[in-house]
Recover the amino acids of this structure.
């Protein structure tokens, strides 16, 4: 639920934030910078929240991150009550920075799975977790579309809750709901988690320490050394293809997803005159496509025996075709389906790449003794790869794509 709220909270902002920024005296360049700031804040916070979960478990970091995200939603709502220009745009920026810090908890979900789920079931569980997050990403724009009819006067100074700033209300409500569920339902795993399968007790076990101190047995010494690999061993292992390829894959499809959700609202507005409601409906309709595709991926993986590598490869190849159609069909004065069809084709490939990439990575990490005890941290590092795509792509779109031919 926390993962779905995190994903939906991000995408509920996406369809209308450009109009919110411009309406409050901002520019397109500031729009791109604000979108990038969210992912950059998430990127910077993930190492800390990963360390915090190792020290205090999962409940406290989850609750703290959701509280920060809630404060960001409240600031997003109140930004429009400030004077247009530097004050209002600065408040929007600050709200997205807080939202990004809160969104760093996305790494906690995969780390929790790595800690509590037996190794043999991690692929299936990670696929389900990815599916839930993708559903949240797809559902966000649909929620935004429902806000098109919001018009509530607040006080006597003329400020009101409208379709643009009401997004902040949704952010606060969903994060508070997630906090309630985490507080009531999340169970802290025993230290050591899924490593119990192999008979290794939490922290390496007092018995192992006693063996080293008393008998200096070779087997026990090797086990301790294996649990604390050297930096060079770690770097050599991380540099292997089965670890680096998932990083490249998750960066690529997240960058493409960011490009589409950042560029689609202004492109559709310029090309066919669509506003926030129409773009929200179009982006929200991705949810149906993503759910259907995820069901197909689940069948291909579990029933048809298609490997993760085959799914990842075919997903990237078919995505290239969809992006080519996007390049040729998105134009001023085009028909509506010229914008909608490439959007649906490209979004249908995200589930084909997301769950298999995470599953392939989990299995690769489990198969390497040097990384076996670092599954949680490695999942956080992989999530950071997605964050890099998140804060690099919007700025690129704002500077390169959102320009007229004369510019």
């Amino acid at each position: 639920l926390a993962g779905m709220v995190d994903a939906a909270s991000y995408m509920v902002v996406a369809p209308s934030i450009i109009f919110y920024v411009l309406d409050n005296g901002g520019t397109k360049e500031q729009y791109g910078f604000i979108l990038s700031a969210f992912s950059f804040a998430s990127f910077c916070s993930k190492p800390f929240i990963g360390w915090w979960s190792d020290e205090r478990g999962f409940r406290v970091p989850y609750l703290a991150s959701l509280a920060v995200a809630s404060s960001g939603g409240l600031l997003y709502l109140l930004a429009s009550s400030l004077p247009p220009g530097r004050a209002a745009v600065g408040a929007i920026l600050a709200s997205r920075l807080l939202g990004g810090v809160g969104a760093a908890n996305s790494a906690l979900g995969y780390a929790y799975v790595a800690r509590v789920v037996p190794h043999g079931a991690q692929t299936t569980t990670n696929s389900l977790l990815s599916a839930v997050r993708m559903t949240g990403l797809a559902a966000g724009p649909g929620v935004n579309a429902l806000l098109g009819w919001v018009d509530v006067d607040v006080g006597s100074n003329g400020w009101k809750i409208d379709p643009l700033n009401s997004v902040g209300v949704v952010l606060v409500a969903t994060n508070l709901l997630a906090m309630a569920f985490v507080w009531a339902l999340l169970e802290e795993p025993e230290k050591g988690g899924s490593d119990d399968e192999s008979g290794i007790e939490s922290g390496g076990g007092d018995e192992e320490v006693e063996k080293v101190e008393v008998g200096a047995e070779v087997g026990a010494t090797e086990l301790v050394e294996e649990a604390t690999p050297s930096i060079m061993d770690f770097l050599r292992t991380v540099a292997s293809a089965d670890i680096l390829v998932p990083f490249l894959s998750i960066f690529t499809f997240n960058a493409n997803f960011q490009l589409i959700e950042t560029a689609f609202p202004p492109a559709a507005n310029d090309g066919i005159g669509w506003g926030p409601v129409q773009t929200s409906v179009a982006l929200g309709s991705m949810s149906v496509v993503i759910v259907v595709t995820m069901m197909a991926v689940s069948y291909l993986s579990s029933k048809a025996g298609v490997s993760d590598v085959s799914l990842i490869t075919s997903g990237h190849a078919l995505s290239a075709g969809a992006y080519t159609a996007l390049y040729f069909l998105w134009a001023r004065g085009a028909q509506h389906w010229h914008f909608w069809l490439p959007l649906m084709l490209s979004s249908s490939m995200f589930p084909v790449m997301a769950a298999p990439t995470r599953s392939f990575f989990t299995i690769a990490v489990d198969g390497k003794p040097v990384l076996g005890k670092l599954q949680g941290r490695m999942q956080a590092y992989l999530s950071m790869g997605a964050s890099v795509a998140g804060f690099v792509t919007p700025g690129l779109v704002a500077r390169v794509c959102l320009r007229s031919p004369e510019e």
Q: What stands out?
A: Residues 2-401 form a domain with the Growth Hormone; Chain: A; fold (CATH 1.20.1250.20). The mean pLDDT is 79. The first strand starts at residue 152 and ends at 153.
